[in-house]
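Narrative of accomplishments. A recurring question from our advisory board has been how the design workflow behaves on a single, concrete structure rather than in aggregate. To address it, we present the structure tokens for one chain from the evaluation set, followed by the sequence designed for it. No filtering or post-editing was applied between the two.
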């Protein structure tokens, strides 16, 4: 390897950098990142700080945050007490350059989880116990931040705008992504593609599952 210039620190290896980021959200103090919990708000604030540190441009109406209120017409609101709860997506972007700047790639991952369990949990008998969700989806949001960290360093005369979104309220019926579609930070007709990262924390299977590969001509 080339010697480092004097006084310059070595870049932290991706695994060492990602591990504390992954562990920061699956913690009992985050209350399973359930909708309406202080733990979910804390996780969103952590992601916003990381976006800022990475060098993304804030893209929400409130800095990196895109706040929204759960509507009473949401399907899960008919069976739970989530209507009226306030939560927020976390949104940052890398501006495009040249002739491709007007095209947008959205990369997303949800950062909420099941809180203390309930009907959506794999084990309904575990209701009342903190569901930390290390794989679902702290793994996806960690990957989201690592991708942002790598792409922010790109240098190209022509490059698409990349929007990074950490969605909230997805476990309660895709609330965050639905709100984003209704209130995109860049026009939807300029969105070239969207990639969603979910449950990427089980590499032992040595498999990558890709859904929706037929939804765009270039994907296959």
């Amino acid at each position: 390897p080339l010697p480092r210039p004097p006084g310059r620190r070595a870049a932290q290896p991706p695994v060492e950098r990602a591990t504390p980021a992954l562990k920061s959200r699956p913690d009992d103090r985050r209350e399973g990142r359930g909708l309406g919990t202080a733990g979910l708000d804390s996780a969103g604030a952590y992601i916003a700080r990381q976006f800022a540190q990475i060098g993304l441009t804030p893209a929400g109406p409130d800095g990196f945050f895109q706040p929204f209120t759960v509507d009473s017409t949401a399907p899960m609101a008919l069976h739970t007490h989530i209507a009226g709860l306030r939560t927020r997506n976390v949104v940052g972007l890398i501006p495009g350059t040249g002739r491709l700047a007007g095209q947008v790639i959205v990369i997303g991952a949800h950062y909420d989880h099941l809180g203390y369990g309930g009907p959506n949990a794999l084990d309904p008998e575990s209701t009342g116990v903190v569901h930390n969700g290390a794989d679902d989806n702290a793994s996806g949001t960690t990957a989201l931040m690592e991708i942002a960290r790598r792409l922010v360093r790109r240098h190209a005369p022509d490059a698409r705008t990349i929007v990074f979104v950490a969605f909230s309220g997805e476990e309660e019926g895709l609330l965050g992504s639905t709100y984003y579609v209704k209130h995109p930070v860049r026009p939807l007709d300029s969105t070239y593609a969207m990639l969603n990262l979910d449950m990427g924390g089980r590499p032992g299977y040595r498999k990558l599952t890709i859904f929706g590969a037929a939804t765009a001509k270039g994907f296959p």
